[in-house]
Amino acid sequence: MAALLGEITLLLGVLALFSGAAVDAQLSPTFYSSSCPNLQSVVRSAMTQAVNRERRMAASILRLFFHDCFVNGCDGSILLDDTSTFTGEKNAGPNVNSVRGFEVIDTIKANVESACRATVSCADILALAARDGVVQLGGPTWTVQLGRRDARTASQSAANSNLPGPGFSLAQLVAAFSAKGLSARDMTALSGAHTIGQARCATFRSHIYTDSNINSSFAALRRRNCPSSGGDSNLAPLDLQTPVGFDNRYYQNLVAQQGLLHSDQELFNGGSQDALVRLYSTNPATFNSDFTAAMVRMGNISPLTGSRGEIRVNCRRVN
Questions:
Q1: What is the pLDDT of residue 97?
Q2: pLDDT tens, position by position, 282-293
């Protein structure tokens, strides 16, 4: 009897092992090579059209991907509209009135569905679109790992507590990224995404009016379009020099104390990341290499794989 129980226990252990392997399957760049061979060209084509219509959209989609991955992993949860059973992430503090590009993802999803019905997750579409937008603005490319599945729920409270804010200190930034398995170097490289895109006055007002580690002429320039009260939604480029070009000018701005956000300038403010910021400011190849490697690592944050999650047909709602 004891021997039989031992065999049963062993069998259950083996089954659990195989079950775990299926659930925690690794992402792969060739995941859709047979099930949706034209996926990458479909996504690239739609992103090219979207960015040609509005250059800023590349930054918006990149930010969507970042805000998705930092909240319960890269699972497409940020794309979900609120329902009667959960309050989603779109109206969380860091996202409300600022995350955008949902219609672009809807369009790409519709095109992908026409090519490969119910096969490709919204989470993977977002990962590919983020990469393609960067490339459209002259940035580096990288191999996107695929095989994510989509969440069936979303959490506004998780978005409020997990996403780093524009007023964060360097220590807070390092801690927020470390909590997701990303190093301080990853954090500084990923912050280079701010070489494109724009920010709302509400997110940088305190920096340009109260902080001392800011170039006075730059602060005066930004105050023209960001009054001390009101005008919260007025926009300014995150990169003063080349706002629609993906390059290393963001770091040159930081060295010149022309970071738009408090959290930006924290990367070059007498702290642990100063040397790295200087390196990136003079060596675009190193920045590109570190940025792409960090994007892959960020894309690996807690993906749903195997039998977890689903392949949403509509990115805004569960099946």
A1: 87
A2: 999 999 999 999
Average pLDDT over residues 115-135: 98
Residue of 67, 194, 207, 262 marked active site: 67
How far apart (Å, rounded) are the C-alpha atoms in residues 261 and 252?
Answer: 15
Concatenated DSSP letters of 209-258 = HH-SSS-HHHHHHHHTTS-SSS-TT-EEESSSS-TBS-SSHHHHHHHTT-
Is 313 in contact with 201 (CB distance < 8 Å)? no
Residue 21 has pLDDT above 70, yes or no: no
For the record, the structure tokens of 273 come out as 């990341």
pTM of the model: 0.91
The secondary element (H helix, E strand) that includes residue 199 is: strand 198-200
Number of other residues whose CB lies within 10 A of the CB of residue 29? 14
> Among 144, 155, 87, 88, which Cα is nearest to 121's?
144
Q: Is 262 part of the annotated catalytic residue set?
A: no
Contacts by 240-245, CB closer than 8 A, 24 or more apart: 242/195, 243/196, 243/197, 243/198, 244/55, 244/56, 244/137, 244/196, 245/137, 245/138, 245/195, 245/196
